[in-house]
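Structure first, sequence second, as always.
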């Protein structure tokens, strides 16, 4: 049987007409696998006709590939020269162990490109925690000041604006295209490390599916390509033809030439939200934790008919609209009329499948969805309003200062994942196990709720002996359950008792003479050179409460 390997071609050369074999090898053509192998020994005409067809077919494919490759590369370069910019960012991240101060500033570089409306689109992680941003266009030695207009950390996208009219002279915007199909070629343009000039790398689309976005710790649709995406490439466009197929944003560590780009539907959702409301709106969620129903016994237990498919509801976020509609052990059969398979996927394009979470995430805030489900053997349909939902423990807190409150040397902060990240890259194993479990598993019970912890004790005579209670969760203040850090601050500041009692996790108790503790607080702040006993957000809240009481 004929194969497409070079070894097979060499073997066939001695059996077939020398002119044809030489031509085939010289042009680099390959054989398909025909269902009927022609007889070489007796039927030269049949053999010749077979190769004429093979040569013509392969020639057409080769010409298409060659023409597309050359054209695509040149178009990508031409478009990039007047559209792609290099971004210089100076940033400073907060120190969550010492929330009243920042870490030392650092300088990073990335890429971006011009979109309609005289705006620059880039990655959120390129400008995260920024203090100063400059951009430079291709062929220009001048750097221009840029301002961050909007940031979506979940989708790792940001929009910059440049006020200087000089910057926009000769600049062209790029248009957004569609999701490329598998094996379609894309050209990634940007300013990766290793040089100062613009760079173009080519690759093909390998996969399209929801992927974990490293920066925002969320799962949204992404496109995997076999082109290298290195530091500095982030924010650059992936061009297909003369339009943008996505934005380069991350790679797969430990693997070679596996990169990811943010697809056009996610980009359009981000931009549309900003244009409609003037700010980033986020991506919707149903607030559900679902289990696949691939096991036959599980489907029989929940009275699913043979033609039914769906997923089992395990948990429901109390803050979601679904909390009052859906119930635990419901089987979700359809979302907006689209059947959900037993593995949680829905049809996507040509014979591809994607998790139904993608349908949810592409909904606009306050949009409704029709959900068909199976409950106790009966089918029901409900309308659910979708909203972006925030976890009880925030997974990121970019571009904002952390909250804190200090009383008698006791430092109280809300539990966040960035706080746990201060324990190092292996924070999951090195951070306190109880706090880690709370951060990853606990669901909010009410809006505005926070888990407040005693992060550390600034030693003084007033708090001696309490240093071992650090890293425990705060439960009550004077018998009142706290809702969040602001609530704790109000309870402590407005305490009218002689003694202040703070109940912690693991049934631990802190008791302080209130007046002595107030005096000690000023002494401790001065000793540790801390400018304020509370963060700016709490201080603003306290000042507004004082003004209201004065009126």
């Amino acid at each position: 049987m004929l194969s497409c390997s070079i070894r097979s071609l060499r073997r066939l050369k001695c059996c077939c007409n020398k002119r044809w074999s030489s031509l085939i090898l010289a042009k680099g053509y390959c054989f398909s696998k025909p269902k009927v192998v022609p007889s070489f020994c007796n039927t030269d005409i049949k053999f010749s006709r077979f190769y004429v067809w093979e040569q013509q077919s392969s020639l057409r494919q080769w010409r298409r590939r060659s023409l597309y490759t050359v054209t695509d590369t040149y178009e990508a370069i031409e478009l990039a020269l007047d559209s792609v910019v290099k971004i210089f960012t100076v940033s400073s991240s907060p120190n969550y162990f010492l929330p009243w101060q920042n870490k030392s500033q650092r300088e990073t570089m990335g890429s971006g490109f011009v979109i309609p409306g005289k705006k620059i689109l880039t990655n959120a992680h390129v400008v995260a925690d920024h203090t100063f941003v400059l951009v430079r266009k291709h062929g220009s030695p001048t750097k221009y000041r840029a301002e961050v207009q909007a940031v979506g950390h979940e989708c790792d996208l940001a929009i910059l604006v440049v006020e200087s009219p000089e910057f926009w002279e000769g600049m062209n915007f790029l248009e957004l295209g569609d999701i490329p199909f598998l094996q379609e070629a894309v050209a990634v343009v940007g300013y990766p490390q290793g040089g100062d000039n613009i760079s173009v790398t080519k690759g093909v689309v390998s996969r399209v599916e929801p992927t974990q976005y490293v920066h925002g710790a969320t799962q949204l649709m992404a496109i995997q390509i076999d082109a290298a995406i290195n530091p500095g490439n982030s924010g650059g466009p992936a061009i297909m033809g003369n339009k943008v197929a996505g934005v380069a944003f991350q790679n797969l560590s430990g693997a070679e030439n596996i990169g990811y780009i943010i697809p056009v539907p996610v980009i359009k959702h981000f931009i549309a939200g900003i244009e409609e409301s003037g700010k980033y709106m986020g991506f919707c969620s149903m607030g559900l934790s679902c289990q696949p129903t691939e096991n036959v016994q599980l489907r029989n237990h929940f009275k699913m008919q043979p033609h039914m498919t769906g997923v089992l509801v395990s948990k429901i976020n109390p803050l979601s609209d679904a909390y009052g509609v859906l119930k635990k052990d419901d089987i979700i059969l359809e979302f907006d009329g689209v059947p959900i398979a037993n593995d949680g996927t829905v049809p996507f394009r040509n014979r591809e499948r994607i998790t139904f979470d993608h349908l949810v995430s592409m909904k606009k805030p306050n949009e409704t969805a029709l959900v068909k489900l199976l409950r106790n053997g009966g089918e029901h349909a409900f309308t659910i309003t979708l909203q972006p939902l925030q976890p009880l423990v925030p997974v990121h807190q970019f571009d904002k200062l952390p909250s804190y409150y200090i009383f008698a040397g006791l430092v109280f902060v809300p539990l966040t994942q960035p706080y746990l990240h201060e324990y190092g890259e292996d924070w999951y194993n090195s951070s306190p196990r109880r706090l880690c479990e709370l951060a990853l598993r606990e669901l909010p019970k009410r809006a505005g709720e926070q888990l407040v912890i005693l992060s550390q004790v600034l030693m003084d005579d007033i708090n001696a002996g309490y240093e071992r209670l650090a890293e425990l969760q705060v439960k009550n203040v004077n018998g009142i359950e706290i809702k969040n850090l602001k609530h704790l601050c109000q309870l402590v500041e407005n305490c009218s008792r002689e003694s202040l009692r703070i109940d912690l996790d693991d049934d631990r108790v802190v008791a302080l003479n209130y007046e002595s503790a107030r005096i000690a607080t000023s002494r401790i702040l001065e000793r540790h050179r801390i400018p304020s006993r509370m963060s700016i957000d709490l201080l603003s809240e306290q000042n507004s409460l004082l003004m209201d009481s004065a009126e």
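Margin note: Residues 44-81 form the longest helix (38 residues).
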